[in-house]
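Consider the tokenized backbone below.
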């Protein structure tokens, strides 16, 4: 059985920060910095996903608008048509989707609502932890069954 997004996020604080389309960029940057997050979903007045503002979007806005960036809002810089995932989607599929779309963050959708966000860091951490658990289990098996001894 392949692990799912839900399993990958079991031990993660899943507090979700979101912004609205008219949220000023300065406020978004402050929110992301204070909470050490790399992206924030942008919701419309009906709380539907409209896009995502990531660190990459902020840098592109600064490069494109210079000091005028302070007058922009989320709807001016957000990435639209953002790929999403669900809690039951397999981790390997999510990782492939992120790689193919060159996305580092995917909003998690449940019943049409954004309920969280999964990052490439979450996927990598889960896969590394999974590999360490497997290696430890294999080592325990070898030593427990004395398969490690040479020449009987």
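A designed sequence for it:
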């Amino acid at each position: 059985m392949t692990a799912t997004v839900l399993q990958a996020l079991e031990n993660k604080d899943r507090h979700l920060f979101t912004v609205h389309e008219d949220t000023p960029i300065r406020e978004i940057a402050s929110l992301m910095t204070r909470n050490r997050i790399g992206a924030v979903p942008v919701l419309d007045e009906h709380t539907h996903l409209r896009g995502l503002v990531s660190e990459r979007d902020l840098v592109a806005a600064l490069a494109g608008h210079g000091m005028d960036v302070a007058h922009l809002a989320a709807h001016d810089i957000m990435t639209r048509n953002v790929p999403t995932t669900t809690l039951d989607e397999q981790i390997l599929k999510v990782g492939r989707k992120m790689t193919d779309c060159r996305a580092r963050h995917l909003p998690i959708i449940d019943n049409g609502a954004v309920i969280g966000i999964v990052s490439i860091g979450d996927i990598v951490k889960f896969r590394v932890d999974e590999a360490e658990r497997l290696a430890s289990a294999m080592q325990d098996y070898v030593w427990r069954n004395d398969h490690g001894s040479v020449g009987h």
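The chain has one domain: 5-144.
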